[in-house]
Design goal:
The structure holds two protein chains of two kinds.
Chain A (H helix, E strand, L loop, with lengths): L2 H32 L5 H10 L9 H24 L15 H12 L9 H4 L2 H31 L6 E2 L4 E2 L7 H27 L8 E5 L5 E5 L3 H10 L20 H25 L3 H28 L3 H6 L11 H14 L14 H12 L10 H21 L4 E2 L2 E2 L2 H27 L11 H16 L14 H30 L16 H33 L1
Antiparallel strand pairs in A: 1-2, 3-4, 5-6
Chain B lengths: L1 H40 L1 H4 L3 E4 L2 E5 L21 E2 L9 E2 L10 H18 L26 E2 L1 H15 L3 H10 L1 E2 L10 E3 H13 L1
Antiparallel strand pairs in B: 1-2, 3-4, 5-7, 6-7
Helix pairs in contact in B: 4-5
The chains are: A mainly alpha, B mainly alpha.
Chain lengths: 566, 209
Amino acid sequence: MSPVLAGVSQLLALVAALALAHRPLGDYMARVYSSDKHLRVEKWIYKGIGADPDTGMRRSAYLRGVLAFSAASVLFLYLLQRLQGVLPGSMGFSSIDPDQAFNTAVSFVTNTNWQSYYGEQAMGHVVQTAGLAVQNFVSAAVGIAVAVALVRGFASSGSRTAASGGTPVRAGELGNFWADLVRGVVRILVPLSVVAAVVLVACGVIQNFSGIHEVGQFTGGSQQWNGGAVASQEAIKELGTNGGGYFNANSAHPFENPTPFSNLFEIFLLLVVPFSLTRTFGRMVGSLRQGYAILATMATIWLGFVALMMWTEFAHHGPAFDLAGGALEGKETRFGVGASSIFAVSTTLTSTGAVDSFHSSFTGLGGGITMLGMQLGEIAPGGTGSGLYGMLIMAVIAVFIAGLMVGRTPEYLGKKIGTREIKFAACYLLITPALVLVLTAAAMALPTPGDSMTNSGAHGFSEILYAYTSAANNNGSAFAGLNADTQWFNSTLGVAMLLGRFLPMVFVLALAGSLAEQRPVPVTAGTLRTEKPLFTGLLVGAILIITGLTYFPALALGPLAEGLAS
Amino acid sequence: MNNSVANTARLLAAGLRALLVLTVVCGVIYPLAVTGVAQAFFHTKANGSEVTSGGRVVGSSLIGQQGPGLDYFQPRPANGLGENSVNTQYRLILSGATNRSGDNAELIKWVKEAKAAVVKDNSTADYKVRPSQVPADAVTSSGSGLDPHISPAYADLQVHRVAERNGLPVARVQKLVDEHTDGRTLGFIGEPRVNVLELNIALRGMATG
């Protein structure tokens, strides 16, 4: 079997596994967020929080819950790192400096997992398991909660006491944030992670608390390794589309990703929740076909990007790769070019940012594909929750564009998309490009940030463009030659992550609230049928054109210039 | 004003309580439960898949080691590996890649030099290596710098040198390489590969035994 055929076969196996998993998981998640029953353990948790999970929240209350929880999380994680030097169970590792601790705290709370530190030398057991890994769970659950709130906005009948699933909902209410958060963790992410972590250990991922470990070497002498609870963190790192590695080499490190099977399994994990949420969406709005239209849009873009990536990586244009006879720099032998291409596309089209190979050493065009994937807004299939709400915002934009063409007030899922709704969607759409382009321009214009580059020329510019793209879109992967542990990058990337996560959520919840107040309008002959392939085509087109217009000039200076030169 | 400050404080306190409770679930119970299962059922793997040779632990079958002499099979280059710069009471290996782009002058130089070295080192009196025979993995650094594998092509290339330096017949060393070559999982997942540490342990056994 040729490497190309093996790569395509792995892609097909992945598609089959996702197709099998998305129905039961999607249906299960729909039941989780529609149920009016609480598990016993959840009741204990609500008692601990001091929250009543049955109170319906309007958009402002829901948003306050999201922001309060996230603010407390940033503060807690910051302090945990600052106090590492005196915490027991930290192997004597010193405390993290303030700017890096801020950056890392924001990074994990925003589901970004950008890392300006080296995991193996900086973070002890306590910070890794009780700090960083916890955020891997809860930041993912917050993302799903916000997505579910938006879906409830579409699904709401807008009347006073309609029953949706179970709990009676009043007009304008979006559910209860604490209940959504806790259910996402307890009923979805923890059970899935336990299974995934055990599978990973069976492949060879380490799971111990043995601290620094002195081991003999083949040539004599010894080497020192980190022990750690790696498998438990790896599982949720992929499932929650977080991406922050226990080790610096992330999922390229053999202790995080030891075999070809574990690699394919990890790609499956990082895709399964975002793809399945389209089924959850379909169930909750009462039309599975609407879910399929969204799923088809995501799958089309994902498959197209994988195909492009495999093409450019197997063709390996670039002086060093031509000389070597293949684009294997930064790639592991056991994965090869095919599987590394699938991983790279999947991690940047979701908000994961884990890597099994290093994007900076991809071909010029390959690096461009990873950047463009993030710049689409990470919606194909996107992060846990954030992918679905990002795609639904694009769907609102697409029906608006279609409405302009035929001169009719657009509607989506029975809700009118009026001035207010389109303003919220447009604001959502503008935030990340503004952060990426303004901060990249600032870093290029100032004298010192450029000193952090490892490569020069077009690729050096790409390192900085990639960093802000990754931060503002909450991805977390990097053209890792950039030395990002400087005050400038720790601070500005931290701000980009914060604003890139929570400002969009403000507009998503604003839109959700506004939709939830509306009564649905009946479908007529003039309604755009958003469950049909025509709409999927329109949506794919809208996404590519809007992103292309926004980022083309910047991409032309970086990856396109590099890719076309070789 | 006072009212809104009090409300904000109450909300933040609720957020903090939620975080602490969920930290117990996700940050204490979950990792300990997984560790318990892992240590009970996958003891060797959960502790790093250590391998022994001559009654001594000589590393992990998952972690590639730099520096076996030319008597042994060579791993891939690892120009991205580093040493720890903080917590220097330990000597930690920092995993990592070079992150050099395809048009980076340094990377081009590394590849050129590695290729020349592979050709020179592996050519013996009756076996001349041509530059076109050198596979890509032999001259590029992996993502982790700890890649435990090389391609079967790179292992085959080293057979004559290793056989000559250890006074072994070429056919026997080639057979050893073939025995240590893993195909794709289920025929299509990943790439064919040879584990360098395990191969070198077997070679040492053959050369001394």
